[in-house]
Amino acid sequence: MEAIVEGENLKQALAQVKRGIPTVLDRFIQQAVMQVLQADWDGTFSEMSFGFRPGRSAHQAVEQAQAYIATGHGFVVDIDLEKFLETAS
Q1: Which residues does 14 contact at the CB level (< 8 Å), separation at least 6?
Q2: Cα distances (Å, whole numbers) of residue 63 to 31, 50, 75, 76, 86
Q3: What's the whole-model pTM score?
Q4: Mean pLDDT, all residues of the chain
Q5: Given this model, what pLDDT does residue 20 score?
Q6: Percent of the chain, pLDDT > 70?
Q7: Distance between CA atoms of 38 and 48, rounded to whole angstroms?
């Protein structure tokens, strides 16, 4: 990022940005934004939601799905909104 601000190696720095290679600063900003947003939004998600939530894992999702099937539920639904949004745009 400093290279872009100072004008040094601008072409090389922009080439990295175009390829989508995140820098340490990019990761730092993403993490900071995630922590702020997550504190506000996590409570609004369904208790049945497991994707990308702190303290939740894919293994827990599978265990919960198996528990629903064992109690007589006929269906378990897995929705990947990211893939849907990629095709909708």
Answers
A1: 4
A2: 29, 11, 14, 12, 28
A3: 0.50
A4: 78
A5: 66
A6: 74
A7: 17
Contacts of 23 (CB under 8 A, 6+ apart): 1, 16
Q: For 25-63, what is each residue's pLDDT tens digit?
A: 888 888 888 888 888 887 888 888 887 788 888 899 999
CA trace torsion 7, 9, 12, 16 (10° rounding): -60
Supply 78's token pair: 């897995």
CA distance linking residue 33 with residue 29, whole number of Å: 6
CA-to-CA distance for 49 and 41, rounded, in angstroms?
13
**Sole residue written with tokens 């269906």:** 75
What is the C-alpha separation between 60 and 64, in angstroms, rounded?
6
Distance CA 4, CA 6 (A): 6
